[in-house]
Specification:
- The protein has about 160 residues and is mainly α.
- Among the domains are: about 60 residues, Multidrug-efflux Transporter Regulator, Chain: A, Domain 2 (Orthogonal Bundle), CATH 1.10.1660; about 50 residues.
- It is built from 4 helices and 2 strands, in the order H-H-E-E-H-H.
- The chain has a two-stranded antiparallel sheet.
- A hairpin with a 5-residue loop joins strand 1 and strand 2.
- The longest helix is centred in the middle third of the chain and has 46 residues.
Length: about 160
């Protein structure tokens, strides 16, 4: 049916672009515990040990993000399936954090090395261009054999070499 054919007018809907921030605290403790398949007291214990850091509302209610829930699931996997205790989980998470920092630093260092390499190659090319007028080809025994560089004035410099015995 068309809009005019049914006697009703449809109102156009404004399109709204929504984004999802995985770090924004949106789940209360009971919802986060259910999503992670844990007891809320376990979440409180993990927070006390520093394994998880939920955001807080203005009224000091814990608010867990999607990222927090994924971290809780990862902790549960390490304890239940891999047999780690909480000290082991803390160590693994700390090592993962260090590894990520090292990866970021390595990426920065690679970018810096590439930039320095580009600058070095540019400088080498600049120096090569500046020496073209000054370089005498090896083996030029006679002034007639000297090849002037492009754009150089036609000055002849005789080169005398002594023969080696």
């Amino acid at each position: 049916m068309s809009q005019a054919g049914d006697g009703r007018r449809r109102r156009g809907r404004a399109e709204v672009e929504a984004s999802f921030d995985e770090r924004r605290g949106v789940f209360m403790i009971s919802v986060a515990a259910e999503l992670a398949d844990m007891h809320p007291q376990t979440l409180r214990m993990y927070e006390a040990r520093g394994l998880i850091s939920p955001k807080r509302s203005p009224k000091n209610t814990r608010l867990y993000s999607f990222e927090d829930v994924e971290r809780l699931r990862r902790i549960q996997q390490m304890t239940a399936e891999e047999g780690l205790n909480l000290a082991g989980v803390e160590t693994v998470l700390d090592l993962e954090r260090q590894l990520e920092r090292a990866r970021v630093e390595l990426s920065r260092m690679r970018a810096r090395a590439a930039e320095l390499e580009r600058q070095m190659l540019d400088e080498i090319e600049r120096v090569k261009r500046s020496f073209r007028a000054e370089i005498v080809p090896y083996g030029a025994y006679d002034a007639r054999e000297i090849i002037p560089a492009a754009g150089a004035s036609s000055v002849r410099i005789p080169v005398k070499r002594t023969k080696r015995r």
